[in-house]
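Before a colleague's protein record goes any further, I have to sign it off. I want your independent view on whether this chain really folds as the C-alpha cells say. The record follows directly below this note.
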Amino acid sequence: MRSTVIGLAVGLWASTTNAHLAVFTKGMWCLNGAEGNNLNSDDPVTPLYQLAQSQWWFHAVNGCNNQPPADGDILTLPAGETITVEIAANQGVTTLSFDGQYVSDWPDGHTYADDYNVPTCITTPNMHTQNQSMAAGTALAIAYVSDVADVTPENLVVFSVTYNTPWKRLTTYEVPANMPACPEGGCICAWGWIPNACGEANMYFEGIRCQVTPGSDPKPLGTPKAPVWCEDDTSACVTGPKQMLFWHQASGDNIEVDGLDLAGEFKSPGYNAKCGFSNGAQNDIFDDSGTVSSSPSSTSSSSTSAAATTSASTSAAAAAAITSAAGDVAVNIANPSSASDDSASSSTDSLTTATDSSTSSTDASTTATDSLTSYTDASTSATDSWTSSSDTWTSSSTESWTSTTDATPSTTSDSSTYVATSTDVAAAAAVTTSTSSDGRRCKRREPHVGRRDLNHRAASVHRRNAYKHHELH
C-alpha cells in the first residue's frame, strides 16, 4: 500500500511539473480526461496555439469536447453571489480526485511563498507570469442554450472576470445579480485565459454545463461584441456585453494586436482593463429594454411572439363572430314570424365575416411561422458570417532551437530552449506590420522557428531581452 501511494505521488509530481493550468469543477467537459477514466488527467490543461477553430473550440484537439459532464453534473451560478472553483495543473491535485489528499493552496499541489516572484517567468507551476500582480486575468462566459452544438462566439457572453489570476488553486468569480434562469437542460458556460507574456502566446478554453439561480430582477443578456485593445484609449473600449477572447489561432481569432503596451512589452490581449473588462461581475451585459419569464424557458424572437399574439387575438375574434352569427340563426328559428329576408341576409353576412376572420387567423399563424423561419435564417446567417484569420509568421534561417519532452506521457509541456541572435532581433524589427483604420486591431507578427506536435507548439520570440535566453514553456 505504501509503495502504491509513493508511486502515485511521484506520478502526480511528474504530471504537474511544467504543466499549464485550467479550471476543474463539477459540470466541466473532460472530467477524468478525454477517455473519462483518468483521475490524474491534465487533458483540459493542454495549451491551444495556432489551431483551426474546429480544433480549439471546446478543446476538440484532444477529444475533450467528446467527454460531456454526467447527467445532473452541473455548476450552479447564484445570481448576485459568488462561486469558487479550482484552477490546477492536474485533476489529481484537486478535490475532484483521491479525496483531495494531494491538494495545496497552489495549483500544482506544492507550497510557495505568498509573494512568489521570478523576474523571468514562474514555470513551476506554469502560470505564465512573473508574480501575482502581472497575472493576466481569467473569465467565465455563458450561452443561454442547452445544447453545446448551439454555442457560437456570438452568443457566448463574458459575465465574470477575476483580475490577477490564475494564481492560487481556489479562485472566486462574482455572478451578476440580474442573471436570468437558464432554459430547460441548463446553459453552456466556458472558462478562458490568455497569459500575459512569459512563454508561448497561447490560450486556454474549456466548456462547463451550468445553471443560474435567478434573483428578483432577471434581465435578458444583450448580444456580445468582440473586445478590442484599448489600454491607450479607454474611450475606444467596447461597452456592454463582450465575447470571449480568441487569439493566436490558425483560424477563428476575434482580436488582433500589434506593437508594445504602455509597459513596453509586446501587447497581449487579456481579461483585464487593457481590453475593456472590469474586475468582478460584468454588470453591463444586460438588455434593459427586454424582460424575461420568471420560469426557465427557451429564448424566442419578439417578432414571432408578436405574430403569435396577433394570431390568438384574431382567432378569438373569429370565434366570437361565429358565436354571434349562430345566435342570430337560432333567434330566427325560434321566432319564425319575426324572421325576414333582411335578418337572414344579416345572419349570412355574419357567418361570412366569421369565415373571413378565421382566414385572417390562419394568415396570422402563417405570418408567425414565416417570422420564425426568418429568425432561424438570420441566426444561420450570423453563424455563417463568422470569419477566420491566420497569423503570418516570419522565420530567420539563423534561428535555432532544441526541444525536450518529459518522460511521463501524461505531462503537458511545450518547453523549448531558444537562443536569440543579433540576426533574429534584426529580423523581428524588420517584420512589416499592417494597421487598420482604428490603429489598434493589427495582426501581431513574431519570428517563428518551427512547429512541433499535434498542438502546433512552436518556439518563438515572445518578449523582450529578459526572455531571450529563457527556457519557454
User: Anything to note?
Assistant: The helical segments are 2-16, 53-56, 302-334, 341-384, 422-430. The chain is about 20% helix and 15% strand. The two ends are 35 Å apart (CA to CA).
